[in-house]
């Protein structure tokens, strides 16, 4: 059932090109290069009225939501707040009749996410769910559902669910932009064309995991690792850090690169590994200057750059190159080596990759 792989996690990492392709599936109108979401019951006119969005989820699903926030805000100019479900359910959120809530849950059974959904529904807030499980509680109770078609995810560490959730958020963001008229048809077409090339790019990244494996092996004796990045790179860093903690038990933290000097830089000393993501052109120089700061304190830096950017190699110890795409779509590629890094770090330590200690696949109790 592991299809020849050593673990479900590795199998699921390698299933990502398919999961992402299936999630896009019939939702892309290839002829007109736009997004269609036939599953939405509400009218386009209603959807266009929403002027504020809460995205509520836990763990990796919340991290997908952080990517969703940036893209929805950029493409639609609708303010989006991302909240951890266990916090949100006990808050007194500010709702108006133009507030839309998006809950994201692979399993559709996470207790806190479900409770947040129920609280919102009590206040008559429209809830859209992004979930991977047809017939799950979240799918049944939400007003609207966009399914991710990742197939069953067995490993505790979520991988293909994350990339599929990010795709679902891209599709929703584009659809909302179409409905609100905030992106021109030509802009949507360009993004759609790039989206369609993502599965192939993930596949090409999965072909050669050797460099990541070597870096992961070099972390065998270390007990702390940092991820830094800005903007979307920071959002993905959080996911890389969670994955690493979860299955390799290495203490790690993800920091917005510019925030380091407000405290965390004190922890950087000789040979501390730092994974530095620098894939976003608009803030590239700023990130590089933060990388220079950690290098100056002796950090061993693995940089993530976009293919064609051969400058970063001059600043860091080693570089992993992401296939070129639109900067907004890069997170779905950047996360791949981060998943592999966590996987190989866990394997190098001889741990049970699929069943990390203290954790359950589905957190159905509070
Ligand atoms: O099923 P859900 O998406 O609601 O689960 C949420 C989190 O429990 C889950 O993403 C968790 O963080 C993963 N184990 C991370 O790999």
TrEMBL record:
Keyword set, alphabetical order: Aminotransferase, Cytoplasm, Glutamine amidotransferase, Repeat, Transferase
Give the record's GO biological process terms. carbohydrate metabolic process; fructose 6-phosphate metabolic process; protein N-linked glycosylation; UDP-N-acetylglucosamine metabolic process
**UniProt main location, coarse:** cytoplasm
Q: Does the keyword Cytoplasm apply?
A: yes
Where does the record say this protein resides? Cytoplasm
Q: Does the keyword Cell division apply?
A: no
Q: Which reactions are catalysed by this chain? A: D-fructose 6-phosphate + L-glutamine = D-glucosamine 6-phosphate + L-glutamate
Q: Which residues form the active site?
A: 361 (for fru-6p isomerization activity)
Q: What is its EC number?
A: 2.6.1.16
Where the record annotates domain SIS, the positions are: 43-182, 215-356
Molecular-function annotations in GO = carbohydrate derivative binding; glutamine-fructose-6-phosphate transaminase (isomerizing) activity
Q: Where does the record locate the signal sequence feature? A: none
Q: Which GO terms describe its cellular component?
A: cytosol
| EC main group | transferase
Q: How does it assemble?
A: Homodimer.
Its biological function? Catalyzes the first step in hexosamine metabolism, converting fructose-6P into glucosamine-6P using glutamine as a nitrogen source.
Q: What is the protein name for this chain?
A: Glutamine--fructose-6-phosphate aminotransferase [isomerizing]
Gene name, Swiss-Prot/TrEMBL: glmS
First and last residue shown, out of the full length, are 245 to 610 of 610
């Amino acid at each position: 059932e592991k299809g020849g792989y050593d673990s479900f996690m590795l199998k699921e990492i390698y299933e990502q090109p398919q999961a992402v392709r299936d999630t896009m599936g019939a939702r892309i109108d290839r002829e007109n290069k736009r997004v269609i979401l036939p599953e939405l019951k509400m009218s386009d006119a209603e959807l266009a009225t929403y002027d504020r969005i809460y995205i509520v989820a836990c763990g990796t699903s919340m991290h997908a939501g952080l990517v969703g926030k940036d893209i929805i805000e950029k493409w639609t100019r609708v303010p989006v707040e991302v909240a951890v479900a266990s916090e949100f359910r006990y808050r007194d959120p500010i709702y108006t009749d133009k507030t839309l809530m998006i809950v994201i849950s692979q399993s559709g059974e996470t207790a806190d996410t479900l409770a947040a959904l129920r609280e919102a529904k009590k206040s008559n807030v429209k809830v859209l769910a992004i979930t991977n499980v047809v017939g799950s509680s979240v799918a049944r109770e939400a007003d609207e559902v966009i399914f991710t078609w990742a197939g069953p995810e067995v490993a505790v560490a979520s991988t293909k669910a994350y990339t599929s959730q990010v795709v679902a958020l891209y599709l929703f963001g584009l659809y909302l932009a179409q409905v609100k008229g905030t992106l021109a048809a030509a802009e949507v077409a360009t993004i759609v064309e790039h989206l369609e090339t993502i599965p192939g790019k993930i596949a090409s990244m999965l072909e050669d995991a050797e460099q990541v494996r070597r870096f992961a092996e070099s972390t065998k004796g270390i007990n702390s690792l940092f991820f830094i990045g800005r903007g979307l790179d920071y959002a993905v860093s959080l996911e890389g850090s969670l994955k690493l903690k979860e299955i390799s038990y290495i203490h790690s933290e993800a920091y917005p690169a510019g925030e380091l000097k407000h405290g965390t830089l004190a922890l950087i000393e000789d040979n501390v590994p730092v994974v530095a993501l620098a894939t976003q052109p608009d803030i590239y120089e700023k990130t590089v200057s933060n990388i220079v700061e950690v290098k100056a304190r002796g950090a061993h830096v693995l940089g993530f750059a976009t293919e064609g950017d051969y400058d970063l190699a001059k600043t860091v110890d080693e570089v992993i190159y992401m296939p070129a795409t639109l900067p907004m779509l890069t997170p779905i590629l950047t996360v791949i080596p981060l998943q592999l890094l966590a996987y190989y770090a866990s394997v190098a330590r001889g741990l049970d990759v699929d069943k990390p200690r203290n954790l359950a696949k589905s957190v159905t109790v509070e």
